[in-house]
Amino acid sequence: MNRRLPWLLLALFSVPALADFKGSVTFATDYVFRGYTKSRNNPVGLGNLEYEHELGLYAGLWVAPVSFDDGYYDDRAHVEINPYLGWATKFAKNWKLDLAASRYLYDGKVFGQDSDYNELYGSLHYRDLLSARVAFAYDTYNRGAKTLAYELVGRYSPVDRLQLSAGVGFHQAGELAHYDYFFWNAGVTWYVNRYISVDLRYVDTKLPYYEHHEDEPENGSIYLQPLDDRFLFSLSVGF
Question: What is the pTM of this model?
């Protein structure tokens, strides 16, 4: 795994005067990513550290344990490290544009193969109410597969410290998983105070047909385990 990330280290540790750090630690009942689980439905602890500059530049590092359905392989990955670099800017009166690039790094193999890869993002936000996002990877999980993910998220706060939100997405993953699929979620977030939040969310994934994987996938192929009809809980502490 290539961990030479000088551009990230420079962004994180060469801090200009007008810079700010923030971070969070999250306990979640599952590591959910675009409608599928990266932890085989097991609880996980997640961490994020981010540096921001008032000009809109930011860089960060996301770390999470992973557990794919590839236990029969040796040297399987147990940790995912996601460094990212981006730029956000406001325009008009209530709009914000966000562009970013990230790399997914694994401490081992995923389904018997090195799986580090890059992804590009573009997001458009209307106030704190609505967000639209497109993500593109040209070599997903190092399988030579192009994938596109589209997501739309809406938020509403009926009272102070309480937020209702829902999101729907479409993962164009045919080259990787042999099918495209929809995923969605709806839930409520309670902001206990400035640093602590609690989230309860219902998630579901709609595949074009039911996928059985009773046999081991062929060497190097990927199986994305979908999340069907379940509630997820998370507790986050930020600083």
Answer: 0.86
